[in-house]
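Quick start: read one record
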Amino acid sequence: MFIVDVGFSCVKWMTEDTKGIYRTIYRTSKKDEGLLYKEKRYVVGERALLKTDPCYLRTIDELIDLYPLFTAFAAQKAQIDKSDILVIGLPFDYWKIETAKSARGMHSIIEKLKDSLIAIKLEDTEYKFDDIVVLPQGVGCINAYLNDTTGIKGNILGIDIGFNTIVYSLFSVDENDTLYGKTLYKKGIHDMAINLINPVLEKYTPGKYYSPVEINYIIEKRQIQKGFDLIDISTEIDSAAKEYIESIFSYIIGDLSENIGVITFDTIVIGGGGARAIKELSPYKVNIKVLEEPEYANVRGFKSKAIEIKPPIKEIIKPEIMETPHSIQPQITNVQTPTEEVKEEVKNEGDKTIEIKEPEEISHTATTMEREKHYKVKKKSTEY
């Protein structure tokens, strides 16, 4: 199983035993630089920041279009070229609408996306996946919290703070169902970067332009480079983050009061890369939990949900008694002897019907050949 969560800021990926993250920043190159994808060369990740004003994902259409590129780049980093199941995520509202279309037999972008991910050619390598599972972002952080916590009942509000989006979902633990959810576009850390951090940077480096992804990088590093000087702006970032989070909470509180009626919740779970900006919160009379490694919350939750939906297929090996010399003859101890006089199982195989008759008693210590003699198989043709 390979889990990939392509966000507007970073791609998070996870396998059975490792995980990683890189920035969804890219630029095209006409030189022998980067990776060949669909007849273009792409420089992906932090290296793209070496040039001024790199590209970043701005819309859901761009995210869908470049999902295969970012997935293949993640697979390259994970050093895998195939997997039985690829698990990915999409913004909650978008996922809900497109999933409903699929359920009604209508054309859905999700089906188109799945088709584009089955086999992805990047440079000389083709990355192949047998099955694709698409899950809603935001709900993943709730699943991650439930996996790490026991005895939870009632309702949980999950808030996933990304770069471009904020996804919040009200989840019923008792009913194992999402009661309400919403995606806010352009309200993620991007909003804080443009409106609150950019004025700070203007003070220290007047006249210099920073793109939103560059400001996000500065927020994570909490410092800027000016010549040979590193300027720490942690105080300004913490102040901006508190103002930003409070404004987001205020909006969510207002929206929930209009849309969830009398339903209550006593726990708020916060995940997503933007959760790292939270250093201080005003006191609330609910339990607020910022997840550890919040940027990986969705992929952790996706992994457990995908296992629930599509449990790993394990080869079922039927016990077989082998003929071995002398006293080392193995025995089956948990086989029940049929109580009916004759058991009959009918199977359809092409244009034939096979009747398998089993006698009343079969010795538990019988060899394979001896057991086969007890079975009578009669084939008879069936007309349609």
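The chain has two domains: 2-191+237-309, 326-381.
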